Amino acid sequence: MTWSIEFTRKALKQVGKLSPRAKEALRLLVEDLKDQGPFPGKSWPHYGKLKSQKGQAKEDRRHCHLIRGKPTYVCCWVVIDGKLKQIEVYYVGTHEKAPY
Fold it and tell me: Cis bond leading into 99, ω under 30°?
């Protein structure tokens, strides 16, 4: 059974602003997330879990870099339900504006 990947409205708007190269990297990441779940593999640079910020509930938040260089593009997602295999992408954009 594959994982279900959803995008927030904000993330969908951010995808529209990406370069073609970043969009292709995101497409490949989404395929990996569907097949392998929240751990897309070691081929994605700087993959890691994100710490919960103060005042937020403990959530399984993760991120990885899509494209290295200047600017560096990242993708951030949260595991909504591990048993139902649901992931929500909540940020796609430059590293400088990432919510972590």
Answer: no
Domain that holds residue 22: 4-97
CB neighbour list of residue 83: distance below 8 Å, 6 or more residues apart:
none
If one counts the domains in the chain, the total is: 1
Q: What is the CATH number of the domain that holds 10?
A: 3.30.2310.20
Q: 23-58: per-residue pLDDT in tens?
A: 999 999 999 999 888 888 778 888 888 776 655 667
Instruction: State pTM to two decimals.
Output: 0.86
Give the CA angle between residues 47, 23, 61 to the nearest 5°.
30
Given pLDDT bands bounded at 50, 70 and 90, which one contains residue 96?
A: confident
d(CA 21, CA 43): 17
